[in-house]
Design brief:
By secondary structure, the protein is mainly alpha-helical. The protein has one domain. Helix content is 65%, strand content 9%. Strand 1 and strand 2 form a beta hairpin. Helix 1 runs antiparallel to helix 5, helix 3 packs antiparallel against helix 8 and helix 5 packs antiparallel against helix 8. The protein starts with a helix and ends with a strand. 21% of the residues are buried.
Length: 217
């Protein structure tokens, strides 16, 4: 289960960071032909996308900013990462709680509370029967394993939570950047004009010549 969750998160991260640029490149390459562009002569009303609104929507509900930007194909990536990291947080936290309970019952000297057997997967009787050591050896091994398990699951839970928050912020950033790019006017009417210019030196009063560069877009 844990490996499957990691795979889902990796796919979501790669998709959210990389697929957007590739998808945009494909769209930009599908240019209208000159004949088609000549037919479309009248200007059309272009929707203005607000980066602040996209960021706020994604902050309130993850993925809502992508819907606002009409990037519906990103929703599986967003929710794949959110759900994946969330599942890791819950899974590691449950395991940590199990090891804490097992460690607590290991030291309570109550023979009826042996939940630590479920955590260690080996009982004291099986440990001794397999020739791995005596009772003192089992006690040392069990205590060390329970403490390492508790600390390891706590560390993994905290790292998973950081990953969850990082991915949450990433999808907000993605929605904000998408809204910015949506407002860019990618037009074929891009020209560069270079013209000669004559000006006068304010110190000497003599004229001098140069070039003026003007970009129209």
């Amino acid at each position: 289960m844990k490996n499957k969750i990691y795979r889902i998160i990796i796919v979501a991260l790669i998709g959210l960071l990389g697929v957007n640029s590739s998808f945009a490149q494909v769209l930009n390459n599908n240019r209208l032909s000159k004949q088609d562009s000549a037919i479309i002569a009248q200007p059309i009303n272009k929707r203005i996308f607000s980066p602040k609104k996209a960021a706020l929507m994604s902050a309130i509900v993850p993925g809502l900013g992508q819907i606002y930007n009409r990037k519906y194909w990103k929703l599986p990536l967003v929710y794949g990462g959110i759900v994946g990291f969330g599942a890791l947080v819950i899974w590691n936290n449950n395991k940590m709680q199990d090891t804490k309970r097992g460690l607590k019952e290991f030291f309570d000297d109550n023979p009826d509370t042996r939940f630590y057997d479920n955590v260690l997967h080996y009982t004291k009787e099986e440990f001794i029967a397999n020739g791995w050591g005596n009772e003192a050896g089992y006690n040392a091994w069990a205590e060390s394993s329970l403490k390492k398990g508790r600390d390891g699951y706590r560390r993994n839970r905290d790292l998973s939570f950081l990953g969850f928050m990082g991915f949450y912020l990433l999808q907000i950033l993605d929605a904000t950047v998408d809204a910015h790019f949506k407002n860019f006017d990618i037009s074929d009417d891009l020209s560069l004009n270079i013209d000669p210019v004559q000006q006068q030196n304010p110190l000497t009063g003599r004229p001098y010549y140069g070039l003026k560069c003007q970009i129209t877009f």
